[in-house]
Amino acid sequence: MTLSPPAAMAKGTLSRQLVVRTTALVAAATILLSLVTGLASFQILQAQLDGRLESALRAWGPGSFPGETKPGDPEGSGLIRIEQRGTEFIYTDVLTESQVVALAAIDPDSTPVTMAIEGLGLYRVQVSHRQGRISVAALPFSAVTTPLTRQLMMAALLTLGSIALAGFGARQVVESSLRPLRRLAGTASQVAGLPLASGEGNLPVRVPQQDADPASEVGQVGVAFNQMLDHVEAALEARHRSETKVRQFVADASHELRNPLAAIRGYAELTRREQDLLPANTAHALARIESESDRMSGLVEDLLLLARLDSQPTLALQPTDVTQIVLNAVNDARVAGAGHRWGLDLPDEALTAHADPFRLHQVVANLLANARVHTPAGTTVVTSLRREGEQVVIRVTDDGPGVPAEIRDSVFERFTRAEASRVRHEGGSSTGLGLAIVAAVVAAHGGTVTLESPPGSTTFVVRIPAAFSPTSDGRTVPNS
């Protein structure tokens, strides 16, 4: 399965994580800076307000009274003043008696305090005790809150703008920085999609030189990746040369074995003509020689077929009546395996596939022989034929013990055999090549073969392309 690289800012990607974390870091720093600045501004504004209170108290001399404008009492400042003369309080006319009592209750000579004056709002108040008299001065705390609120609103807007700008900039920088890494991931995906299981194993894909600069971290990964591809390509080439030599050896050996095997069979048949003159033991030995030579000849032919399919599959493809092939193969299986029950499930109309008739018959015959050899007498084997879309589908199902779990994944490999106790010796023997031939022939047809083996059942499913015929309007339709 080939994986396509995710989008640049997809969920879970490194680029998204870097952008989010960078933006979060900038946001935290900006917010903290705004808070510190706001706190410092608050303290400065409050200190300025306290200084105005102190100046107002110092500027008022004895005998002054509310309503007089003094140097420390600029017009429009909102300054409130209270003086105690004996037991009498003289105060600004905006105050009520209850407000005056509340303000006069503050400890004299204390530091300025912030308090809410009923009906007037929040004020900064300071009380002074000088020359036997008590003076109270209060200024609206809005002189602090109003500019501080404006500053905080401006800081909030600047913070949001900084976060947005940081996010946009971080995205541009991260995407640009990680672009070589994305190209490296794309190269790896191309390599993952190459058919490396067979063939010469050439790897034409490499990381571009611009992304293989050892001066950068990504470039070092690119260099290491190219070196790994070189080693893999060398290993695949060595494997291919070894497999080619093995296939050639098998083909040559099988070809060379045909002549001596034919000679052995010939001499055995010639000697058997005079078996009446031979001792019983000798006649039996000659019969076994002839039987084993026949079996060996079949094995050699199977090896030669596999070698040819490996090197250059040559099939005589033509429109083939699959229904007739399945019918003939099942009839042959009935004769060879009289102890089994053989069933057929054929469609009403004949199905035609684009196939080699001889090789397709061999596929069905091998599947039926596999069921006969590996299941006990009395097993029911049903062969069905259907057309599914543009494919002809052959299913061979038996109710035998099933394929052992340990060999299911390798059942189509060569010389894969079940344990000896599962092979019916009276019905034949297994060379481990039958299903390998099935897989190779079906693959040469451009089809597939699969195994389904739940407990108590085994089904082999063969799919090959259906044959198509042109219609009067130039289209093609499956033959039926």
**Portion in beta strands:** 15-25%
The end-to-end span amounts to 35 Å
Query: Which sheet architecture does the biggest sheet show?
Result: 5 strands, antiparallel
* Rg measurement, Å: 49 Å
Number of helices: 8
Q: Structural class, from secondary structure content?
A: alpha+beta
Stretches where pLDDT is under 50 for at least 5 consecutive residues are: 420-428, 470-477
What's the arrangement of strands in the largest beta sheet?
A: 2-1-5-4-3
Number of beta strands: 14
- CATH class of the largest domain reads Alpha Beta
Which geometry do the CA atoms define?
A: rod-shaped
What is the compact description of this entry?
By secondary structure, the chain is of the alpha+beta class. The chain folds into three domains: 63-138, no CATH class; 194-312; 315-478, Heat Shock Protein 90 (2-Layer Sandwich), CATH 3.30.565. Helices cover 49% and strands 17% of the residues.
Task: Please tell me about this protein's structure.
The protein has 480 residues and is of the alpha+beta class. The protein has 3 domains: 63-138, no CATH class; 194-312; 315-478, Heat Shock Protein 90. Helices cover 49% and strands 17% of the residues. It has 8 helices and 14 strands. The protein has helices at residues 14-59, 97-104, 142-192, 217-272, 280-311, 322-336, 357-374, 434-444; strands spanning 80-85, 88-91, 113-117, 121-130, 133-140, 318-321, 341-345, 352-355, 380-388, 391-398, 448-452, 458-465, 468-470, 476-478. Helix 7 runs antiparallel to helix 8. The longest helix is centred in the middle third of the chain and has 56 residues, at 217-272. The radius of gyration is 49 Å and the shape is rod-shaped.
